[in-house]
Amino acid sequence: MLRSVDRWLLPYVTSLPRRIPADGTISVFIAVCDHFEPLHDTDLTGALDRLRTWLDRFPAITDRFCGADGVPPRHTCFFPVEQYEPRLLDEISKLCRSTKAEVEIHLHHRNDSAAGVEDKLQNGVQDLCRHGLLSREESGRARYGFIHGNWALNHCDPHGRGCGVHREIPILKQTGCFADFTMPSAPHATQARKVNSIYYSADATGANALHSGTNVAAGVTAKLRHSPNRLLLIQGPLALNWKRRKFSVLPKIENSDLTGRNPPDALRMQLWINQRIGVTGRPDWIFVKLHTHGGIPQNFNMLLGEPMLGFFQAIEKANRDPDHRFRYHFVSAREMVNLIHAAEDKQMEETDKLRNYLFPPPPVLQ
After folding, report:
1. What local confidence, expressed as pLDDT, does residue 120 receive?
2. Looking at the whole model, is its pTM more than 0.85?
3. 183-237, pLDDT tens digit by residue?
4. Which of 153, 218, 272, 356 has the fewest Cβ atoms within 10 angstroms?
């Protein structure tokens, strides 16, 4: 259970003294980043059936609930571009149009080369753009968020599995990636030493690029946004949950993964908030990046069923309570990046005006 804990435990402990401001309203931005693999352990017919379940059930959720600023729950599908199938993307496009869900890039590869991963990413960008699924700058350049398959970003797996490219980050930047959402991966061995952070990767090769970097700070770090060798890394909460223990002794790892066996609840939400992941200089904004594998029944039955409905109901109740300090907002991965950069640039407009701050909605949503 505690594999790789030697790598991240000390950084986790030293980050614990971070405190939530004593006064004022705290905005909590929640993004569900889905390693969305409908072809996992099934064929095309089975994958299309899974997508029909999403099309049948998710619109009812987005019609029923909303966050503090009136925006319904968002879902971001990081689609494995090596599994491109037009019929699947046609159905996912329908899901996006009906629920404002968004699509970004997920990629599994191994023993690869720099040229190989660049080709895979460029093809993936082109494939998703044919369906109108990626953000486009005014110049027409496509921009995307990224999650690495098997957690092995920049060849960070100590066993050498799941990638093969030590300088993958510059290739991601070159092909239009605006941020990576891979971490946390604990208890997997790929877990970075740096935890509970939003930061620009170090200008280094392999795992070292993930283990250190520069935290995003208001009015300070914007120039790093344009570095060809440094990528914005947005981590989800990683913590030890002492209220849930293995063998009644060891704390369980809270790694912000939403599963059928471990759905979201009030205890987990408090742990996520307590990690205070945000932009230095903007203490009233907290970013909660969650992940899941929603293309498979054991998880999407939770995401589309009673556990998630109860979670959304609790959020709506808290948002209506005038004495509750936290205000919860639902965002896509792209919108989270925009809000982070807005905070970095010390923008103080209403959050709904900053959701599209740098990177506009994909054509399918326009």
Report:
1. 98
2. yes
3. 999 999 999 999 999 999 999 999 999 999 999 999 999 999 999 999 999 999 9
4. 356
Peptide bond into 251 cis (omega under 30): no
Q: Are strands 326-330 and 26-35 parallel, antiparallel or unpaired?
A: parallel
Q: What is the CA radius of gyration of the chain?
A: 19
User: What domains can you pick out in the chain, each with its CATH number?
Assistant: 5-18+26-365 (3.20.20)
251 Cβ contact partners less than 8 Å away, ≥ 6 residues apart: 240, 241, 242, 244, 245
Distances (CA, A) of 288 to 88, 97, 172, 188: 29, 25, 23, 20
Q: State the average pLDDT over residues 105-117.
A: 97
User: Residue 364, SS3?
Assistant: helix
CA 48 vs CA 54, 134, 234, 247: distances in Å:
10, 21, 31, 40
Kind and range of the H or E run holding 342: helix 333-344
Q: How much is the pLDDT for 349?
A: 84
Q: Which residues contact 262 (CB under 8 A, 6 or more apart)?
A: 268
